[in-house]
Amino acid sequence: MMGGQDRHPGWPAKTPVAATRAGGVRLRPLSRRDGRRWSEYRIADEAQLRPVEPTVQGDWADAHSGQMWRRNVTGLLDMARQGVLAPFAIEVEGQFAGQLTLGNIQHGVVSSCWIGYWVYSGFAGNGVATAAVGLGTDHAMRYIGLHRVEATVLETNTASRRVLARAGYREEGRLVRNLHIDGRWRDHLLVGLTVEETGGGVLAGLQRSGILPARLR
Question: Can you list the GO cellular component terms from the UniProt entry (predicted)?
Fold first, then answer.
């Protein structure tokens, strides 16, 4: 189930399936075939995504066209082959539901990466994002072999802050004007998690606490 290269263990790979109220959730390598759903879902969720994501120049629909998808996915897969990034599709019962990326992968004395994700609103409120973050964090630590995973999040993005907190991420500080979001430079909170804090794994902790079901019903 797990595969990869010596310089990039854990890629390409599919994760185990996590139970949620929406059904089974897993991560799998992002594919060029995901473009139609990616465009459809991103365009439909402009009102939710634009205020929390890096600034898009021009029209939102143009920025999420098939042509832009092909450009984006080519770049992501190239970086995955270089071992610096792991781009995943989030699946719910085999259907594309969003995207999760492990980026700036560094081994050696740094041994860390960042995690970023989005989930289509049609799957929201069912634990999908929480499961995806749990699966992604476990994958980064167990199979890519990293010691630390971190994320940045807008202070006003309460939904994402809740997801990260449930997965065990600690707030570590504030990054001042570090990302250009929706037309202006915005502060972000820095959150992090190290392998020593995860016990038997993030997903297992979410299941033990009852945040996620232990098995599919």
Answer: cytoplasm
